[in-house]
Amino acid sequence: MYRHFLPSFFPKIPNFYTLPNPNPLPKIPNLCTLPNPSLLSKILAFLDNSCSSMSDLKKIHALFIVSGSINETLIASRLIRFCALSPFGSFDYSLLIYTHLNSPNPFICNTIIKSYINQSRPSDAILFLCRSSRAAANEYTFPLLLNAAAHLNRIHQDLARQVFDEMSQRDTVSYNSMIDGYVKSGDLDAASGLFWETPVRNSVTWNTLLSGYVQNCRFGKGLGLFRQMMECGFKPDDSTFVSSLSAAAHLKAVLYGKSIHGFLVKYWVCMPAHVSTALIDFYCKCGGLRVAVTLFGQMPQRDLICWNALIAGLAGKDKGKAAIGVFSLMLNEGIKPDDITFLGVLTGCAHSGLVDEGLRHFEMMSSVFNIKPRFAHYWCLVDLYMRVGNPDEAFKIIMDMPLGDQSSIWGALIGIARVYGDIDVGEYLGKRLIELEPYNSNRYLPLMNIYAAAQKWDKYKEMRELMKERRFKKPPDCTLIDLNNVAHEFSIGDRLQPEIEKIYSALEVWAKNLNLQPRGTDEVLSI
Length: 527
Prior knowledge:
Elements: H1 6-9, H2 37-49, H3 54-66, H4 73-85, H5 91-99, H6 106-118, H7 122-131, H8 141-149, H9 154-166, H10 172-184, H11 188-197, H12 203-215, H13 219-231, H14 238-251, H15 254-267, H16 273-285, H17 289-298, H18 304-316, H19 320-332, H20 339-352, H21 355-367, H22 375-387, H23 391-400, H24 407-419, H25 423-436, H26 445-453, H27 457-469, E1 478-483, E2 486-491, H28 500-514
Antiparallel strand pairs: 1-2
Helix pairs in contact: 3-4, 4-5, 4-6, 6-7, 6-8, 7-8, 8-9, 8-10, 9-10, 10-11, 10-12, 11-12, 12-13, 12-14, 13-14, 14-15, 14-16, 16-17, 16-18, 17-18, 18-19, 18-20, 19-20, 20-21, 20-22, 21-22, 22-23, 22-24, 24-25, 24-26, 25-26, 26-27
């Protein structure tokens, strides 16, 4: 079966005894006999710890072929593991070994799948499992499969679910892997459904769904799950607190955040840096800058992420000079900034109207720290000039920036031009924006708002008719309402809320009592 290996390998076997130091292979007295346990142990130890080339691997492979031991599970798995996962190996060679095995075990199968995933080839990993015998899969195969399926389309996810349903024994790890796959693919409804079907949940199960809610901006769901987790008696860990604090910060749920802070103070003697950073971010976003600065000062060690959180928090609350002061302190302590750091500093300069400081730090990015400005950094300069009433300089930056096809900056500028009453600039930007993305309905609405503000109703009507001709429809807006520490989400035309009929009835009564007039002409109607 393996005779095709021998012509190339066999002449090299005499060199097997004289591999170069420092870790020569053990001397092999007879290649035609099965290695004894002691010799086998030495060979495998060399393969695991000292082998650093495919040349050595092929010699070992040839030895096991001629000795008739290649189909031994331990030997085959070690050979394939080196070829598939070692930086000195060859994945194609591992597949060659695999195809000639009589009955590869699940460990070997999992090694090949893991190598496919490490090479960013998830579809090949799934196809490999499909072509292999289902008997070659075990409980450790499934997490690897879900890791691959999470980066692919719905068909592959359905395949992963089919494999999951056919597993004879599904433990908590398998459920967690499936939930994580749904979360990574954005299918939170499926993740939630499987979460409640999980017979035995651990902290990983709860944290996987909780972080999924937060990462997909379903913050109300995230806080609700956190409350259920506490009610069920599960002890939260650092991942739980980071996700929950992030949700509370976005919802401005101050009571939730403060209760989490109280829990941490009561039960944790020393908070990890990333949890303290999450607390700082929460208090900055919820207006508690003094508390955020106090927490920052109490931290025994501060990493770059923590510095960035405080700088961004101060900048977001129009404390530009304070943000610059923290940045200077960070440099004095020897912390090297990154692009996120400068984004926070420039945001602070823009919000506080610090033109000279903003330009100085923008120049510092590339000249001192060799950081290439991104779209967001240029946008901060544009925002800065618009806020200080200098649209000409803002326009020059737009024309000179190497990101001229970024339609998002054009759309943002239109809104600013409208706020500052520069209708001509806004109209120019609006037309440019439509040229960049003529089939994006959201790119027409800013220009319509410009025309409405300037009372240019003929042009407004032209844009409206153009959108109708192209069958564009504005997506429904939504809003969040915090009631008794529970966030409720409402969308235009939403009839799925359990109390929606009562809500509409109350609104009708209020409308009659207030004798509401039709909406103003300066608002753009949904199409």
